[in-house]
Amino acid sequence: MPVPTDSLPPRGLLRDDVLARLRDAIVDGTLAPDEQLRDTELAAWLGVSRTPVREALLELARAGLVRATPGRSTVVAPLDRASVRDAQAVVAAMHALAIRDAIPRLTAEHLDAMRSANADFADAQRRGDVDGALAADERFHAVAVAACGNAAVRTVLAQYEPVLRRAERLRFASHEGAASVARHEQLIALCAAADADGAARLAEQTWQTLTIDSAPDTAGGTTRSTDEGITP
């Protein structure tokens, strides 16, 4: 039979789109902690077959956003201290590497993009716009990640950073992210001065100081950190 003329979406792109949409739904709370995830329902919601949904759920389980019990149910993983701590170590190291490698490549346009994102971040903070603040914060940090040119860094961050974005949402929602504006400004200044060591240290410290005051620990209780807890 002749090859059909209608184009099909590339399998990789479809899978990646499903993964991104499910990941975003978990991060923004559309899919709540401990909510059961049925691949048939998710496939119907997204308008796709069950195969890319199952593949996405496996990837989300590896990232710690989904908890799957063989032969039983798959649920949205609760946000706990252990998952945040584990993700922090990896994400902080990746951002430090990204900023160190990016600095020799940063242009005036890159710095302007960081300033613009920080201005939008500050504005969203003043208005109490949690989604706007999160989006601007992500744009700010994405400048160095893109400029560093390291595909492995981008891949690792795509897997583990969403765990921290869930924690960030708690802090933004409680209006505790305002101090990040000054920290962003300091990072821009270090980048403009080509201080790779100083910028890398600050980037790593920024992500390491993120805390969640009311997340349960792995023993089932809750934890309240005494760290400063500045949102990145």
Your description of this structure?
The protein is mainly α and 232 residues long. 64% of the residues lie in helices and 3% in strands. It has nine helices and two strands, in the order αααββαααααα. The protein has a two-stranded antiparallel ribbon. Strand 1 (66-68) and strand 2 (74-76) form a beta hairpin. Helix 4 (81-102) packs antiparallel against helix 9 (196-208). It starts with 10 loop residues before the first helix and ends in a 24-residue tail after the last helix.
Key features of this structure:
232 residues, mainly alpha, Arc Repressor Mutant, subunit A, two-stranded antiparallel sheet
In short:
By secondary structure, the chain is an all-alpha fold.
Helix and strand arrangement:
Layout: H1 11-27, H2 39-46, H3 50-62, E1 66-68, E2 74-76, H4 81-102, H5 108-127, H6 130-148, H7 151-173, H8 180-192, H9 196-208
Antiparallel strand pairs: 1-2
Helix pairs in contact: 1-3, 1-7, 2-3, 4-6, 4-7, 4-9, 5-6, 5-8, 6-7, 8-9
